[in-house]
Design brief:
Elements (H helix, E strand, L loop, with lengths): L2 H8 L5 H4 L8 H16 L6 H12 L7 H8 L14 H6 L2 H18 L6 E10 L30 E9 L8 E5 L13 E4 L2 E6 L6 H18 L7 E5 L8 H10 L4 E5 L5 H4 L7 H17 L6 H15 L2 H9 L3 E3 L6 E3 L6 H4 L18
Parallel strand pairs: 1-6, 3-5, 6-7
Antiparallel strand pairs: 1-2, 2-3, 4-5, 8-9
Length: 380
């Protein structure tokens, strides 16, 4: 530090930041209030972009900030705010994932666990996932190598958009049931099962529908020909078990409810997740399907670089390799914990962590609240 600078500070002089306060567009109080507001709306699912911030500042001071103001503002307040690429959140999900809905679901889940003495191996979650033969929209985004003199280089992309639906089911103890593949078509191709609706081959099942989607009949067949045999294969098949579904009609249809009532009374119990909360409360959605989907895109990319393509004949074998990485027992158990369902590794006992989700998780629901809410810096 220079002697003149040190002498100036000892004599009560201002530092570099303080000496430029008078030149700032906003006063110190205005800037503090703006930062608090940015943190608040950012948590609430309605964050401001750079353009939105400029419009707010213009309303405060009556003039639009210069080009460099944004970068200086962000640098000054870098300890409390930063810029993000926002993840999209459906407004229905933002509204539905609130403390009341989550606690009501926990009440129901806890009641079932205590009433039937359920352990981790007795609690399951099932859901469906779509796979595109061509790899989906994320496919083809790799960085590639080409001639240095080119301004742009193109990469061929599969035009196969046919959708294959998968039904997966996992337990809180880390188990995964056999997957069901639903192909589009009116009948099986030659070499598949002839004259049947569902084909079970060792560790997987295959079905067909006209559009490749699931429906009440296929949901019923999955339940009776995949889930029920798993229930009966347990060490004590008479132990009650719980199936958690997302409320889709295919998995809680009258066909399944009637079958449970007639054949599995007091053995299988089904509960539905609150609508539009699967992104936080469904283990398969919270970190299981994501890695599998990413691995699937990589597999289709690799095959394209080798001059090959995904077809119905090789889809199953390719998917099972992706599945092996995404459905490791430790990964499955951790995804249950990420939804607030805690599992004891030794005893298998299950408990609910009602404080797992914080106010920041529920913040996006503020926009639909019937009660006026403001940041802490604004007196109520």
């Amino acid at each position: 530090m220079k002697n003149t600078t040190l002498r100036n500070r000892c004599q009560g002089g201002l530092n570099a930041v303080e000496s430029h306060l008078s030149q700032r567009l906003l006063t110190e109080g205005e800037e503090e209030g703006l930062v608090d507001w940015l943190r608040w709306v950012g948590d609430s699912g309605l964050p401001l972009s750079k353009r939105g911030l400029y419009l707010v500042v213009k309303k405060i001071v009556g003039t639009r900030p210069g080009h460099g103001w944004y970068y200086c503002f962000m640098k000054r307040n870098g300890k409390t705010i930063k810029s993000f690429i926002a993840n999209p959140l459906d407004l229905k999900r933002a509204e539905a994932f609130n403390r009341r809905n989550v606690q009501s679901y926990y009440d129901l889940l806890e009641k079932k666990i205590e009433e039937y003495g359920l352990l981790a191996e007795d609690i399951t979650n099932m859901d469906e996932k779509g796979l595109q033969l061509g790899g989906g929209r994320k496919m083809g985004m790799r960085r590639v190598i080409g001639p240095a003199e080119r301004q742009a280089i193109y990469r061929a992309k599969s035009d196969k958009l046919e959708l294959i639906t998968l039904i997966e089911c996992i337990s809180a103890s880390g188990q995964s049931l056999n997957p069901l593949f639903i192909f589009s078509g009116k009948r099986y191709q030659k070499g598949w099962l002839q004259g049947g609706v569902l084909l079970t081959i060792k560790l997987l099942s295959v079905a067909v529908s006209e559009n490749g989607w699931t429906d009440e009949v296929l949901g019923y067949l999955w339940f009776t020909l995949v889930y029920v045999p798993w229930v009966n294969s347990r060490a004590d098949p008479r132990r009650p078990c719980l199936l958690i579904v997302d409320g889709h009609g295919s998995y809680s249809s009258a066909l399944i409810i009637r079958y449970v009532w007639e054949h599995l009374h007091n053995t299988v119990h089904i509960i539905c997740l609150p609508p539009h909360t699967t992104h936080k409360l469904q283990p398969l959605d919270v970190g299981v399907f994501g890695p599998i989907g990413k691995a699937w895109s990589q597999v289709t990319d690799d095959m394209l670089e080798e001059g090959r393509d995904i077809s119905k004949k090789n889809l199953i074998s390719r998917y099972l390799k992706c599945r092996a990485d995404g459905l490791k027992p430790s990964t499955i158990v951790n995804r249950w914990r990420a939804t607030g369902v805690q599992v004891d590794d030794l005893s298998g006992a299950v408990s609910i962590d009602r404080n797992h989700f914080t106010e920041a998780d529920f913040a996006p629901a503020r926009y639909s609240s019937t009660r006026t809410q403001f940041p802490d810096c604004i007196p109520s």
